[in-house]
Amino acid sequence: MLGIGILAASFINIDLEEKDVEGPVAKYDFKKEPKIKGLTFVAPPRPFSENPMPYIQSVNAEWIAVIPYGFIPKDDHKVAHGSERQWWGEREEGVVETITKAHESGLRVMIKPQIWMHGSWIGDFTLDNDKHWQEWEETYSKYILQYARIAQEQGVDMLCIGTEFKKAMQDNSDYWYHLIDQIRAVYDGPLTYSSNWDEYKDVPIWDKLDYIGISAYFPLTDEKEPSHATLKKEWKPVVKELERFANKHKKKIIFTEFGYLSVDGCAGKTWILEKERDKHNQNQKAQADAFHCLFSTFWDEDWWAGGFFWKWYPEMRPNRKDFYNKDYSPQGKLAEKTIAEWYGKR
């Protein structure tokens, strides 16, 4: 490992913070560590035509999240992965090559196996048949443990054990506890789970993990181009709740995903905007402002470990401004400079 185990913070009980009806929560002095300055790396369909890491380093990123997607096909419940029909970068050979190039460039890596489900969001996935649950568990465990072994072999710096299993996490928590034990037997680095922004309080397994992970698409405002003051105001109650939660569990919070489309209203309901992006005007300034206010809100919070913005295309270059004009990627947009400035901070 690259010494990232030290990121599992030590905590010192120092006082009590009076909160709402849930009662007082002990404040903790979270050990100061460098922020995780990360991005989510989009797996390429073919082997790299050139090394993509220098461009990543140009925005001062220090971590990448590598996503070897698995799939639940239509009318099925079992996890499929590794088919030759999948993109090269999502298969084991592409994942290993990506990790190798990242480490050779001095970048740290989180492997984040993630499930795509045909026609639906994985957060809605659940089963009411014990046999089907058993089959799903067997296929998901095989998928995750494959990448736990790769993480150990390749000296990967962190592993995310799942992403946004809102119903499946709550309906089948015993499975997740057992899975974590299996992963710990294979991989000795830090573990997290990527909960959706509206489910993190209901996840039962934080005590077994090193970090609280959140897909941080908190809806702040539907204004087309809100001011910095408006964005900061809307973040305040979110910060209060996140700080309380971190103190309660004595663990730092990582934004395992965060990001904004480059469209009007991008700080609002991202999941709706994503489906309707063609109806909205491109707005690079709104995207850049949203990034800036997120960083300015959380950067100095010791309980916030940093995170991985969504997302980064390895074959994309800044001069291709026609490429995904309204997409999450900040590449070639105003937000790229904003990210570079914040990630350049020490």
Automatic annotation (TrEMBL):
Matches recorded under Gene3D superfamilies: Glycosidases
CDD domains membership: GH113_mannanase-like
Pfam family of the protein (one): GH113
UniProt protein name: Glycoside hydrolase
